[in-house]
Structure formats: structure tokens, C-alpha cells
């Protein structure tokens, strides 16, 4: 096991986890100290990974994050743009709330953690931390903002018809928490990492997609 090797060789591990470890019943942003209660096998497996890493005794940071998107790969932004470019009317879930997070921003947060490790070794620099960007919203609102920006840069000729619907219309094997907003106070306090601007990050990703489409 990688954690056992890290413990033996005094190495450090950064592990990415997820908002799926919570049940979505909170009324405020989740803290790292809140009791996990995953509602799916996926959430169970991610929590089991967290526990295994913690029990190994190795030095580590677990970064819980949410709703990752970027200009490449498979994610909500690219899926929405693909559907819009096909001229489809769309039904978008409105009863799930979370914080869309740019993959680039998560990578930058990771770099900051490593930089702190390089400068100083402290027990404060290990454990579970939450990182997500600075805005919470529904999938419906997220989609609306994607289309607005894509239209403004000419990536779309028009915005598709959108209908807000409950998540019950789109059952998933891995049930997503209806509320998965993460509190980022601890990572700010320990590593001086503040949530990046969702608005600026989404704009940058849409611009990257537009640039690639023009090549």
C-alpha cells in the first residue's frame, strides 16, 4: 500500500476526496470535523480511502473538493456545451447545491500545500482540508452561467431552452448529496489558501474552449 511505503520512508501524500462523503442534509457549509455519512458506494469507497490513509500513520493531506470542471476531459461544462451546440432543449437539476471548482484552482491549491511542506514541517500541515471555489449554486444556475458566457464569446449562437427539474428525474447509481457546500476556512487558516473566484475561473475555462475551437 502506498501509505505504508510513505510511512516507512517518511514521505508525504496528497489524496483527493469528495463531497460525496456527506449525506447532503446540512444547512450550512460542511466543516472537516462534521461526521461523514456517504449515501453511495462511491462515497463509501472515498471515505474508506481517507480512513486507510489516516490509519497508516503517514504524513498526508486529504483535499475534499466538489464539482470539478475544466476545458478538457469529461465534465459538466463540456457536456452542457455539447448539448447546447446540438440545439437540444435541456432539463437541468435545480435541487442540488454545491461549489463548482476549476481543476486548475485545485492544482494551484495543491502546489501551495507542497510549498508549505517544503518550507516547514508541522503537524498543522497534515490532515483533512476542504477546497472549492468561492460560489455555491445549483446545477441549473451553473448551466445558465455557462451558456451566458459561451454566448458572449461566440461559442454558441443562442442559449438553449432550460427547464429546472428535481434530481429525482435523473436517478444516479452514485447518489449525489443535495447540499454539498464545503467550508474552506481551515485551509485558509493553515495554508493561507483562499477560494478562487468562480466567475473568473468559469470565464477562463470558456475562453480556453473557445480558443481551442478556433484552431
Q: Brief description of this entry?
A:
With 215 residues, the protein is α/β, with parallel strands linked by helices. It contains seven helices and nine strands, in the order H-E-H-E-E-H-E-E-E-H-E-E-H-E-H-H.
Detailed description of the structure:
- By secondary structure, the protein is an alpha/beta fold.
- Helices cover 41% and strands 16% of the residues.
- The protein has 7 helices and 9 strands.
- The chain has helices at 2-9, 41-56, 76-85, 103-119, 139-152, 185-191, 198-214, and strands spanning 12-18, 59-65, 68-69, 90-93, 97-98, 101-102, 127-130, 137-138, 162-165.
- The chain has a 3-stranded parallel β-sheet with strand order 1-2-7, with helices on both faces. A two-stranded parallel sheet has the order 3-6.
- Strand 1, helix 2 and strand 2 (59-65) form a beta-alpha-beta unit.
- Helix 3 (76-85) crosses helix 5 (139-152).
- It is globular and about 55 Å long.
- 32% of the residues are buried.
- The mean pLDDT is 94.
Reconstruct the topology from this structure.
Elements: H1 2-9, E1 12-18, H2 41-56, E2 59-65, E3 68-69, H3 76-85, E4 90-93, E5 97-98, E6 101-102, H4 103-119, E7 127-130, E8 137-138, H5 139-152, E9 162-165, H6 185-191, H7 198-214
Parallel strand pairs: 1-2, 2-7, 3-6, 4-9
Antiparallel strand pairs: 5-8
Amino acid at each position: 500500500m502506498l501509505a505504508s511505503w510513505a510511512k516507512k520512508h517518511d514521505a508525504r501524500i496528497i489524496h483527493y476526496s469528495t463531497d460525496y462523503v456527506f449525506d447532503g442534509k446540512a444547512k450550512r457549509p460542511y466543516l472537516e470535523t462534521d461526521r461523514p455519512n456517504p449515501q453511495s458506494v462511491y462515497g463509501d469507497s472515498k471515505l474508506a480511502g481517507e480512513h486507510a490513509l489516516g490509519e497508516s500513520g503517514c504524513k498526508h493531506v486529504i483535499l475534499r473538493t466538489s464539482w470539478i470542471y475544466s476545458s478538457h476531459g469529461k465534465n459538466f461544462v463540456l457536456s452542457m456545451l455539447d448539448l447546447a451546440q446540438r440545439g437540444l432543449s435541456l432539463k437541468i437539476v435545480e435541487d442540488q447545491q454545491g461549489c463548482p471548482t476549476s481543476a486548475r484552482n485545485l492544482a494551484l491549491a495543491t502546489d501551495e500545500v507542497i510549498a508549505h511542506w517544503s518550507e516547514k514541517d508541522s503537524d498543522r500541515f497534515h490532515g483533512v482540508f476542504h477546497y472549492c471555489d468561492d460560489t455555491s449554486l445549483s446545477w441549473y444556475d451553473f448551466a445558465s452561467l455557462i451558456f451566458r458566457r459561451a454566448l458572449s464569446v461566440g461559442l454558441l449562437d443562442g442559449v438553449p431552452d432550460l427547464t429546472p427539474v428535481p434530481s429525482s428525474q435523473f436517478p444516479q447509481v452514485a447518489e449525489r448529496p443535495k447540499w454539498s457546500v464545503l467550508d474552506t476556512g481551515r485551509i485558509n487558516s493553515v495554508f493561507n489558501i483562499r477560494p478562487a473566484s468562480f466567475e473568473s475561473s468559469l470565464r477562463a475555462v470558456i475562453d480556453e474552449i473557445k480558443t481551442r475551437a478556433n484552431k
